[in-house]
Amino acid sequence: MDGNGRWAQKRGLPRTAGHREGLKRVREILKAANDCGVKILTFFAFSAENWKRPKKEIDMLMRSLVNFLDRQVNEFHKKNIRFVAIGRDEPLPHYVQDKIKSAMEKTKGNTGMTVVLALNYGARQEIIDAARKFAEAAVRREINPVDLDADKFKPFLYTADLPDPDLLIRTSGEMRLSNFLLWQLAYSELYFPATYWPDFKSDDLKKAIRVYQKRERRFGGVECSSNG
């Protein structure tokens, strides 16, 4: 969800105003994705590198996320939506950790769309954490390192029970992954609209899905003609 700060600066507003507007788009895109039949929707809300930002901006983001969950979790539950968070707990404030755990617990039995919040998330950190867990399991002789492959490594990732994404959308025109789901995005389709996140509306999501539907995914193979 990139471009909140630049959206605000273009309008002579503080960066925090862009984040507040960005949260409104989360609600709109959630509804649009659910209406379109999207099964899993992941929002990259705060990276492991974002702690470098001004403390005032970070504090505002954390409070806004908690307020968002306060308002949204009952709606999730009512609509049979499961909420999941991925990323390291520390150094997230404990009030944020508690709110996330409460929301996950309340919705864990829901069977509709899954909404994933990547918070204090970094893909390199995820892979390091997974490698550490794998090594610990090997030391306990629960797994043989010789047998390691992609399928046996996946259960140690934060996204162990989730499929790899079909489509990545990064708003604001930036064309990089910025340490997001590096393992999982290996064969995902990538879409980079120039629109800042606060201006990314439901019609923009539908356009991205239409673009995705026209692409051919070969997963390293070759196109097969109708004649074989």
Q: Short description, anyone?
A:
The chain is of the alpha/beta class. It is built from 7 helices and 5 strands; from the N terminus they run H-H-E-H-E-H-E-H-H-E-E-H.
How would you describe this protein?
This protein has one domain: Decaprenyl diphosphate synthase-like (Undecaprenyl pyrophosphate synthetase), CATH 3.40.1180. The protein has helices at 4-10, 15-36, 55-78, 94-107, 123-139, 150-153, 202-213; strands spanning 40-47, 82-86, 114-121, 167-169, 189-191. The strands form two sheets. A three-stranded parallel β-sheet has the order 1-3-2, with helices on both faces. Strands 4-5 form a two-stranded parallel ribbon. The model has no long low-confidence stretch (mean pLDDT 94). With 228 residues, it is of the alpha/beta class. Helix content is 44%, strand content 12%.
